[in-house]
Please model this.
Amino acid sequence: MAMKITRMLTEDERIAMQDDAIARGFYSNDRRVFTPGLAWFQPWYFDPTGERERAGKHVMIKAHRKGELGFLSEHYWRDWADKRAPICVVCPNGEWWEIDRKSSNGSGWIVTGDLPNITCSPSIVVDGYHGFLRNGEFTADLEGRGENGRERAHA
Model:
C-alpha cells in the first residue's frame, strides 16, 4: 500500500509537537513524533507574505532579498516564492525532505500542485528511501528495501 501525505501541520501544531517531543525526552524533530505523511510550510526560511518579518519573527531570507538562491532551488524562486513558503514532508521511512531546496546532485525538484496533492520530479533520494512523490502519494522504494524503504534506527 502506497503512503500519502495525510496531514498538513500549521506552525502552531508543529511547534506544539516539538515541545511535546522534548517534554517526552525525545529530540525536537524526533521521528516517533513526526511520522510519515506529515507536511508543513517553513516560513522561517522565506515568507512570501512578509507577515512573519513584520511580526519580528526570524526569517532567514528577508523579503527585500527575495530570489537569492542560497539553499533554496531556482525552481522554488521561479514557481512558488510569490505563492507559498518552502515545504517539508516526512517520507515513508521517516526521513524529512525539504522539497524546495537544491538537491545534492542538481538544481532541485520541480514541484507542481498544492498540498497535499503535490508532485515532485525528479525522484527523491533520502537515507534509506528512493522513490517518487506523485499527486501527494509516495511510490514504493525503487531500490528493493520494501514498500517504505528502510527506517534509520532510533539513537
Summary: Residues 11-23 form the longest helix (13 residues). The CA atoms of residues 48 and 83 lie 7 Å apart. The helical segments are 11-23, 51-54, 74-79.
